[in-house]
Amino acid sequence: MASSSADTSLALAHPPLPLTAPSEKLTLAAVALGLLALLVAAADADTYRARLSMYLALTLLSGGTLAWAGVKFGHRPAGVQQNNLWLRASTSRGAIAWVLGLVLTGFYVLLYWFPEYLERLIRTLDPFSQSLRGKAADQWFLYGTFYTLAVLLMGGRALWKYRHSRYQLIRTASVMFFQLGFSFLLPGLLLLFQKPEFYFSYFWPLKYDYLFPGTVGYLVKDGQALGVFMVFWGAVMSLVATPVLTYFYGKRWYCSWVCGCGGLAETAGDPYRQLSDKSRAAWRWEVRIIYAVLVFIVLVTALLWVAASGAVPALQPISEGLSKTYGFVIGAVFSGVIGVGFYPLMGARVWCRFGCPMAAYLGLLQKHFSRFRISTNGAQCISCGNCSNVCEMGIDVKQYAQRGEPIIRASCVGCGLCSTVCPRGVLNLENGPREGRYQASALIHSDSLRILS
């Protein structure tokens, strides 16, 4: 009898997951067949057959994913539901999450250091690359295609999931637009017309080499007007537009609306946002690492310019060595292998939270100079914890909401999910005047208490 009682208690504590509907199983089967076709394309030595397998894979993956999103989220009432997140093996660091993490990290390792193993996949995209860029495909075109497809397909999922929120719909459409238009099609078309490949939605210090003397020299060589404009665009966006836009809108204008890294995190990484570490120890490591990365890239950029001036010739090998070190450790290992490969294990914003120098730069501006804040009304908070659960930047939002304190954190990317999931309307994203920025929510809280009394 004792054993039976224990089994009953365990069953009540961990109820079984609801059965998957047949229609959802069918769409997931299409996705699985698409992944299988992708493996066939990667293994087939015959280019024609491999290309057919690739087209079949992309069709099944695209159709299956969008159909699955429609079935899963379209047939139930609108609203964010966080049921069973910590019971599913795919969203709670279970076996499925570990397998997916290993696959993603393995792909990045091959992409950066062993692209020859991806050669057959790369060759399947030659016709597409020729039509868009006027040249054969390489590993970066393969990566860009997969990356953009992930943002678009999982962006479609997000549009279904958050269809009740106008802010989330516009924000998701924005990152999809910038990834497809500015980070994929436009750079390809520039190559087609024999112009320098340039990503207008990435700025220094995230796209760290855009203000390096070598890149600047390459773009302005022969006095080409477009190259000069590219240098001007990058410098103005990094040093002028970024502070101005951040003053008015916080870092969300970039991190949650424009950036490709943030775009992937907000779409493909959405199922894993609850995995971000909310502990104070994690916050300490965040501060130590991300600002060290920012200082490192500022130092490297300055040293490269001093070396390029010829004033200190001995700096040339040192600055180039530091540049290569940054490119390997930060540009490849941190942003790629860890930043994306660890989505299913550590959440989708590991790179944005701990390593991105652009996020650090924007965060400093947001915390000390911006009008942006998330106001809270503690009198209405019921401590459900939904807000903290969805914060991918590791902010324990509930603690602020309970005290009625405004959230003014350097790490906050302004995704707005905390406000979207709040059942009582406690949290509001605001771009109010800087005067009273820290006291605004305290006044709301005191007014609410006076009314209640």
UniProtKB/TrEMBL annotation:
PROSITE patterns: 4FE4S_FER_1, 4FE4S_FER_2. Keywords: 4Fe-4S, Electron transport, Iron, Iron-sulfur, Membrane, Metal-binding, Transmembrane, Transmembrane helix, Transport. The chain crosses the membrane at residues 52-74, 95-114, 140-160, 172-193, 225-248, 289-314, 326-345. It comes from the Bacteria. Residues 372-400, 404-432 form the 4Fe-4S ferredoxin-type domain. SUPFAM superfamilies: 4Fe-4S ferredoxins. Gene3D superfamilies: 3.30.70.20. Signal peptide: none annotated. This is 4Fe-4S ferredoxin-type domain-containing protein. It comes from Hymenobacter fastidiosus.
